[in-house]
Amino acid sequence: MTLESTALTFTYGAESVLTDIDLVIPDGRITALVGANGSGKSTILKNLARLLKPTRGSVLIDGKDIHTMGSKEVARRISILPQKPEAPDGLRVAELVAYGRFSWQSPLAQLNALDKDKISSALELTGMKKFAERELSTLSGGQRQRAWIAMALAQDSRTMLLDEPTTFLDLAHQFEVLTLLKHLNRENGKTIVMVLHDLNQAANFADNMIVVSNGRVLRHGPPSEVIVPEVIAEAFGVVVDFIEDPKSGNRLVVPVALTEQ
């Protein structure tokens, strides 16, 4: 599946948020959107997910404008996990994951054998099967995030979009969630697009990075081509040194000073 944007421009009233964003999301890979707060990275993700409509330009799935497609047609291709997902009080994990099958069901239809199989598989892949009957409110932050990812998995879409999936999680749960997403990409062929704040996490877990600055794409490509001093200085306003990760060989970012303002 090809997901791309062409001259994507988005404004809130008179405020320009995105300007002429041309992107092609690599199929079957992990892409991280990074940038300073307010740079526009989450707005790009929401436009790709059809949660927002471009002021100008377009978002295309396999060459077809996403806004000419039906909601279920889009949902069968793209799942979205927002930054702060909300669920009704008392909702159990299994019930949440079952919502992922909505785009495959006819109105008022009961869950069929395929639906139940997809739900069971999603719970298994995310390690949430043993929590299936637990209420979401009783879970830890990392467990809740895995439950939401399980719902997106049950949706059975090729591409998963996640807005800051590690926000509000401690370091161990951040690593747990990112490791799960990498497994889903490597073992299940999911295309992952996620907004991340931590450059080192992005470098270690993503195959492709998109640096957003002031509503424009500043640089995109493999981490080795993106994580360079001039790009980080312009996008984040910091001077950095680099050290080599002894396990992965990736360059790790160490901020040392603010750039001159």
UniProtKB/TrEMBL annotation:
<keyword id="KW-0406">Ion transport</keyword>
<dbReference type="Pfam" id="PF00005">
    <property type="entry name" value="ABC_tran"/>
</dbReference>
<keyword id="KW-0067">ATP-binding</keyword>
<dbReference type="InterPro" id="IPR027417">
    <property type="entry name" value="P-loop_NTPase"/>
</dbReference>
<dbReference type="InterPro" id="IPR003439">
    <property type="entry name" value="ABC_transporter-like_ATP-bd"/>
</dbReference>
<keyword id="KW-0614">Plasmid</keyword>
<keyword id="KW-0472">Membrane</keyword>
<keyword id="KW-0547">Nucleotide-binding</keyword>
<keyword id="KW-0410">Iron transport</keyword>
<keyword id="KW-0813">Transport</keyword>
<dbReference type="InterPro" id="IPR051535">
    <property type="entry name" value="Siderophore_ABC-ATPase"/>
</dbReference>
<dbReference type="InterPro" id="IPR017871">
    <property type="entry name" value="ABC_transporter-like_CS"/>
</dbReference>
<keyword id="KW-0408">Iron</keyword>
<dbReference type="InterPro" id="IPR003593">
    <property type="entry name" value="AAA+_ATPase"/>
</dbReference>
<keyword id="KW-1003">Cell membrane</keyword>
<comment type="similarity">
    <text>Belongs to the ABC transporter superfamily.</text>
</comment>
<protein>
    <submittedName>
        <fullName>ABC transporter ATP-binding protein</fullName>
    </submittedName>
</protein>
<feature type="domain" description="ABC transporter">
    <location>
        <begin position="3"/>
        <end position="239"/>
    </location>
</feature>
<dbReference type="GO" id="GO:0005524">
    <property type="term" value="F:ATP binding"/>
</dbReference>
